[in-house]
């Protein structure tokens, strides 16, 4: 006995193929050194985080930062309104910080739930004197990355560490890490609060 599939079932099947066909459905990741806001939410260290507590690897948005990418004020959530809690500065003191030292050698680490062809990883930091009680914008970031790791289309392993030097800063700052995927129009974003 043969049954015809209804239009709704066919539509769902096509939608699933469309998501799988982008490639990004299988590629997700976040930084855990210095620990990112999304990982703090997933750990339960920070509460009232919304959906990101179950999906710390899913902060995906348009690539091309700083020229393109998420709009100002939505950088920590990758422009994804579903994860808007990551953009909330929580009064400038509500996000725990990782203690770092200016000019120290540091191991920046990403964790991946799945790998993807990668263009590069770039790390940006806020300027001295920025206001941590306001959402992150391009105007408060040094828009030249202090660390760039080119990947030339290779796929990273489940965990990858990048050696770099912390910039010269004092006080509280935000590091914005951007993982640009090579074969889609997207990148993954992670904000880490640090204290020099």
From TrEMBL:
All residue ranges annotated as the Chitin-binding type-4 domain in the record: 28-194
SUPFAM superfamilies membership: E set domains
Keyword Signal recorded: yes
Record keyword Signal present: yes
Signal peptide (UniProt feature, chain positions): 1-27
Protein origin, superkingdom: Bacteria
Keywords: Signal
Protein name: Chitin-binding protein
High-level lineage: Bacteria, Bacillati, Actinomycetota, Actinomycetes, Kitasatosporales
